[in-house]
Amino acid sequence: MKKTFSSIFNDILSEKYDKSMKELSVRELYDVTASAANALARRYDFRSEREKRAAYFSAEFLIGSLIESNLQNLGVLDEAKRLFAKNERSFDEFAIIPDYAFGNGGLGRLAACFLESAATVGLNLDGYGIRYKYGLFRQKIEGSKQVEYPDDWEVFSDSFGERKDGERVRIEFSDMTVVAVPYDYFVPGYQNEKVNRLRLYACESEEKVNFTEFSKSDLAKAFEKENEAKAISAFLYPDDSTEKGRKLRLRQQYFFTSAALQNILSEIYDEKHWRELPERIAVQLNDTHPTIAVAEFIRLIMKKGKSFDEAFALARGIFSYTNHTVMSEALEKWDAKMFSSLLPEVYGVIEEIDKRLICELENKTDRLEECLIINNGTVHMANLACFVCSHINGVAKIHSDIIAKNTLSQWHELFPERFSNKTNGITERRWLALADEELYNYLCTLLKIDVVKDINCIERLGEYRADDEVLENLFEIRKKKKKELCAFLRKSEGVTVDENSVFFVQVKRIHEYKRQLLCAMACLFFYKQMKSGGLLSLPKMTFIFSGKAASGYREAKLIIEFICKLEKAINADSALEGRLKVVFVSDYNVSKAQKLIPAADYSLQLSLAGTEASGTGNMKFMLCGAPTLGTFDGANIEIVKLAGEENNYIFGLREEEVARSKELYDPVQIYESTDKVKIAVDALVDGTLEEDECFLKTRKLLLENDRYMVLADLESFIETAERAAKDWENKKEYFKKSLINTASSAYFSSNRTVREYAEEIWKI
After folding, report:
1. CB 760 within 8 A of CB 420
2. How buried is residue 395: exposed, middle or buried, by Cβ count under 10 Å (0-12/13-18/19+)?
3. CB atoms within 10 A of CB 307
4. Confidence class of residue 328 from pLDDT cuts 50, 70 and 90?
5. pLDDT digits (tens, 9 = 90+) for 570-612
6. In terms of DSSP H, where are the helices of 532-616?
7. What percent of the chain has pLDDT over 90?
8. Residues known to be catalytic
9. The whole model's pTM is what?
10. How many angstroms separate the CA atoms of 167 and 182, rounded?
């Protein structure tokens, strides 16, 4: 008879700690709970030996907290909560445990969703990446500015990760050899006894201490090699504004892809059947970061005695590439001298691939130079991916169209059959069942089915759009989530927010193209108008921001400073009588997203049309019932198509309008000719706010370097936000829109997305 979670928990407790459950520290309680979850997951096999599987190579895996999600999927969360309650303990105690720091943005969250969904639908998909020591950074706001600190997420230990010393591999650079040590994390499917694996590599030195130098008391030299090795897996996305930073990024990408490929080949390579490798494994490259894997795979196969042509043919049958950007400048490129000096053998393989490219394509296109992998002393990684990979996909319909006609048009002209769209998705197990438990339980009761077992059944919620009792229940659920968020904001940010105000929420990486500045300028407009006695017809409004700016991204850090100084000015102004609040939530992560998203009344998705690949936050908000207030961009387009534009709020220029007007765009002309824009921009310097250099810089940015056309869409956003705020006051009509959004969200399940990859690309 299989042991229950409770019995496994108690066995581990007695084995590890000479204490009762009540006496355990939070760290010890976390350790025992995680160990018990792993013990349950270990019951299930990954896969049979000969089954084909897929591998997902990604620089990020933003997995969030695993305690509740793994126990939920293993089917023992309720039992675990009963055990905790019986012993006067609570899962709320784990709130002090930091999230895993293996990712930062949507790309990493997408990767995490795919792994969980693949296990849930029964597909063999493993993830491979880096086990960062500190991740990106821990963000603090000091003096209204972002300050970065190391994110020491291991302070409570890593009880979910299992170190596999017996499967370590060597990684060779021209100037150093390091060791990749794998840590495995179980990825259980939803109550189906299926478990996949996320394997992340930590970098260590072969030589821990140079005893010759140590004996001379030269500690710097004694630990030099160990420190250099550890730096490779220390931080996510080292600052690439310096040559040292760029070299470290290249080391990272080669480090984890080489380690992953060595692991995969050690498990499945068979000398007698080597030509069948594409029937055993498919590798998906999540953006250009892991593209070096293509050349490394060819190098490793050639080391086994195969010719370049034979290895190249295998690579074409194994690798596929997901593009995550419409901006050509964001496609990864490396200085050829740096690349060749650091990885001479791999660079030699890339030279051979480039020669083959020229032979294959020189008579097929007049755009050959745009296709070259090595060109003008630069290695173009997207070209490497597009030439070798058998499939290339975007992540939303508009994004896939743009990369085909613009970003990667030279490749689409040559190989249109390689291109497809795979609109992103999210896992409803985390973003509904865990993040919005009250809504989840209500939907299960109302629809008489576990909606996360079959998310498509959520469409039946639409039948209740005119049911007053259902709409009232949805209102009460949202009210509870808003109240919980208000309590959290008081505790974490020291800000008091009126739960009866309308919540506009914009949470994502801080970047000019995502246009947090657009929302902040609208807040400034509302502030100036309210301060002078205007806008009396609007309800109380709360604007909530959260996100991190890359440490070297000056403009993004200026935007954070502006929002935080605006927050101080507005929230301290008693003349407003609480009609407007601005909140910046520091150190955004998955756990905070799980609090913010279910409490949102409106989902702000403000990217300039034609710049956002897809977005996945927009899907999470939709699932929890927040209408989208956004541009016609990324997956917003598909959200509106499914839920109806009448149930969402679209504003601003369309992608084709942006394309037509961008070259002639004049922000000063917009400022001088548009009343609302002039009011907002003037408020930066006319005494509405106390004089501050930050406001002068913001004004200069808007009028002299408005690359993402903030002023072009500002008036439209202000007017649309006003309309949305007024509509929100009619609770019956608002919650009808909310209900329809939730009912229309099934398409955005990552179950659907990962099945499309499996059927159309990986063939598993």
Report:
1. yes
2. buried
3. 10
4. confident
5. 999 999 999 999 999 999 999 999 999 999 999 999 999 999 9
6. 554-571, 590-596
7. 94
8. 324, 508-509, 514, 616, 620
9. 0.97
10. 7
What are the C-alpha distances in Å from 588 to residues 281, 482, 546?
A: 36, 18, 6
**Alpha-carbon Rg for the chain in angstroms:** 26
Packing angle of the helix pair 693-704, 554-571 (nearest 10 deg) = 120
Q: How far apart are CA 559 and CA 703, in angstroms?
A: 15
Q: What is the pLDDT of residue 211?
A: 54
With b meaning 16 or more CB within 10 Å and e meaning fewer, what string describes 595-613?
bbbbbbbbbbbbbbbbbbb
Mean pLDDT of 624-653: 98
Per DSSP, the three-state class of 613 is: coil
Name the helix (H) or strand (E) containing 506. Answer: strand 502-507
Contact 562, 695 (CB under 8 A): yes
Q: Which SS3 state, helix, strand or coil, does residue 434 take?
A: helix
Distances (CA, A) of 381 to 74, 266, 309, 350, 386: 40, 26, 20, 10, 9
Q: Which residues contact 359 (CB under 8 A, 6 or more apart)?
A: none
Closest by CA position to 263, among listed 163, 169, 164:
169
Q: Are 542 and 498 in contact (CB under 8 A)?
A: yes
Which contiguous run of DSSP H or E holds residue 689?
none
Task: Read off the amino acid at residue 299.
Answer: R
Question: By the 8 A CB rule, do 543 and 523 touch?
Answer: yes
Burial class (CB in 10 A: 0-12, 13-18, 19+), 1: exposed
CA angle 420, 422, 424 (to 5 degrees): 155
Query: What ranges make up the beta strands (E) of 22-66?
Result: 53-57
Is residue 582 helix, strand or coil? strand
What SS3 class is residue 327?
Answer: coil
Q: Which residues of 516-536 are buried (b: 16+ CB within 10 A; e: fewer)?
A: bbbbbbbbbbbbbbbbeeebe
Per DSSP, 407 falls in state: I
The 3-class SS string of 191-217 reads: CCCCEEEEEEEEEEECCCCCHHHHHCC
- Measuring CA to CA, which residue among 35, 44, 10, 33 is closest to residue 191? 44
The token duo for 181 is: 């040590």
Kindly write down the DSSP assignment for every residue of 507-552, as one continuous string. ES---GGGTHHHHHHHHHHHHHHHHTT--TTSPPEEEEEE----TT
Residue 526: partners with Cβ closer than 8 Å, 6 or more residues away = 535, 538, 541, 580, 718
Average pLDDT score over the chain: 96
Cβ-contact 568, 583 below 8 angstroms: no
